[in-house]
Amino acid sequence: MKELLRTNDPTVIAFATALLDSEGIDWFTFDVNMSVLEGSIGIMPRRLMVMDRDLFMAEAVMRDAEIDLGRD
């Protein structure tokens, strides 16, 4: 799996996953349960992962929707 997106904003994750679903791209979120360790204050970014073969298409979908991927 490859990292597609990294963000602290849960609404961006929700929007991005809806876009990926509409394109038939499988995804998985990492670091969702980190809120237990951080106290639910949202400092730990969540990562949206896609299969290696889907990364190019997923990045294009995010660019079209003007979603910042949050990667350095």
Query: What do the pLDDT scores average to?
Result: 87
The N- and C-terminal alpha carbons lie at a distance of 18 Å
Shape: globular
Helix content estimate = 25-40%
Biggest sheet, in brief?
Answer: 3 strands, antiparallel
Structural class: alpha+beta
User: Helical stretch count?
Assistant: 3
- CATH class value: Alpha Beta
Count of beta strands: 3
User: Secondary-structure element sequence?
Assistant: EHEHEH
The amount of beta strand, in percent, is 15-25%
Strand order, main sheet: write it out: 1-3-2
Low-pLDDT stretches are none
In CATH terms, what is the fold-level topology?
Alpha-Beta Plaits
Number of domains: 1
CA-based gyration radius: 12 Å
CATH homologous superfamily?
UreE, C-terminal domain
CATH architecture: 2-Layer Sandwich
Explained architecture:
This protein has 72 residues and is an alpha+beta fold. It has one domain: Alpha-Beta Plaits. It has helices spanning 10-22, 35-38, 55-64, and strands spanning 2-7, 27-30, 46-50. A three-stranded antiparallel sheet has the order 1-3-2, with helices on one face. The longest helix is centred in the N-terminal third of the chain and has 13 residues, at 10-22. It is globular, with a radius of gyration of 12 Å. The two termini are 18 Å apart. The mean pLDDT is 87.
